């Protein structure tokens, strides 16, 4: 709403430039979020990544869950957008091993497939 008010007070050429800039900013912001479905050890799992601000710096929070298989949830926080999915998956696997959901033999078989 505030953006619409600002655009209405700008000259036509400035308003058009602002709209282009606002669209670019929105597209960049949307790319910070990620929601994917992946296959993990024969099960459909979801990985989500969302940004957040901590001490004036951009961080990413990841979550991994496999509904229909387990209630375990992997979680990870990092400043790296590309690294958060790996950290989150590692947390999920560690929790799955600890609970007995995945055995070392299961993991080795899956890695070799």
UniProtKB/TrEMBL annotation:
<keyword id="KW-0732">Signal</keyword>
<keyword id="KW-0929">Antimicrobial</keyword>
<protein>
    <recommendedName>
        <fullName>Anti-lipopolysaccharide factor</fullName>
    </recommendedName>
</protein>
<keyword id="KW-0044">Antibiotic</keyword>
<feature type="signal peptide">
    <location>
        <begin position="1"/>
        <end position="15"/>
    </location>
</feature>
<dbReference type="GO" id="GO:0042742">
    <property type="term" value="P:defense response to bacterium"/>
</dbReference>
<dbReference type="InterPro" id="IPR024509">
    <property type="entry name" value="Anti-LPS_factor/Scygonadin"/>
</dbReference>
<dbReference type="InterPro" id="IPR038539">
    <property type="entry name" value="Anti-LPS_factor/Scygonadin_sf"/>
</dbReference>
<dbReference type="Pfam" id="PF11630">
    <property type="entry name" value="Anti-LPS-SCYG"/>
</dbReference>
